[in-house]
Predict the 3D structure of the following.
Amino acid sequence: MPKKNSHRFISFFAITICLYGYLSINIGLPAYPSLTEYFGTSKSFVKMSITILLLGFGFSQFIWGTLSEKFGRRSIIIIATIIAVFGSVLTSFSTSIIFFTIARFIEGFGAGYASVLSRSIIADSSDEERLHKTMSHLVAIVAFAPAISPIIGGEIFHATSWRMIYVVLAVVGGILLLSSVFNLKETHKSADLKLDLKSCFIVVKKAFLHRKFMGYFLPYSILFSGLITFYTISPYIFIEQFDFTENTYSYLLLVIGAFYAFGSFLSRKLVKLIETRNVLKIGYSLAFTSVAFSFLFSFLGLFDFYVVLVTMNIYAVSCGIISPICNTKAIIALDKEENARGNKGITSSLLGGGNMIFSSLLSFSITNILFDDMFKLSFYISGIIIVSFSLYWVLIQRLELETIE
């Protein structure tokens, strides 16, 4: 009988690779404003490199998730980590913004496995109750990754240079690679070498035509992409608008991460007491509260790091409440479908990839926007929340009401 890892190890490893994925995205953020002068390029071009990174991170998840259904999780994790480490090394040697952008794309393409396969290896060995519990832990802990990553990057940048940030990232990836080779056992017991592209497209098609999957996938991806994109534009708000230094502004993000983790903790507790749809209502109520506060601050003419933190902290709590529920419901949405192999790997890849693609598109759409007043931030937040809630209402809430009737 083949050996397998304990559930504790799988949970720890899933959290570790997910942290690595977000580390890859956010560790270099503190240095981004300075790259404009270093490479002699425009601010928009530097911001564009973030969009390209997120695109690579997002699209690759569809590839890694699908390949993991055919060849197993372990081998794909090893291959993808090698690509991510190679991208980090290339980034550290960048001599132009174009070279830098291409290298970051390669890095993001490799690291994209982290989000999808962290979900998949947990789902491989969990029932729905344990899956939600573990997913809540994952969301809570990983909530700090986008906040801690810039702190690490900021301190490295302050002590050495921006190049050393990516050397450190390559070393971290190397350690994770060794752990994957020597410690990780295969979790996907039904990996199918005969699984072809047509079968994968059948699952993808069923997912996109599945009202319940889309009803949890779209609202979550849009709402969470708003938070991810805020992290990517935060250096230009806190450093350029509020005069924080590269190695101190990111500590403010840690506060936002803590509120996101608190929201995940609330979600885990609330689902034991009330139905999940009521928990989601609480999450969206808090999301609209953040909108109300943002417009109130805008009306009063207030714009400093205190009001930005208050607004984004409330938003983060709402994301923390909504994310683990939508993740769980979407991943298992197709479980009862017949003749749909590769459900969990592909639905996980759609979740993670969709989230990052939405983030990249959102990042691209605001590339030339200077967030120098509260009204612009209010408009940004309200648009995301309204679209997310509207999709949830149409696809899930109306379906439940129709079922009751």
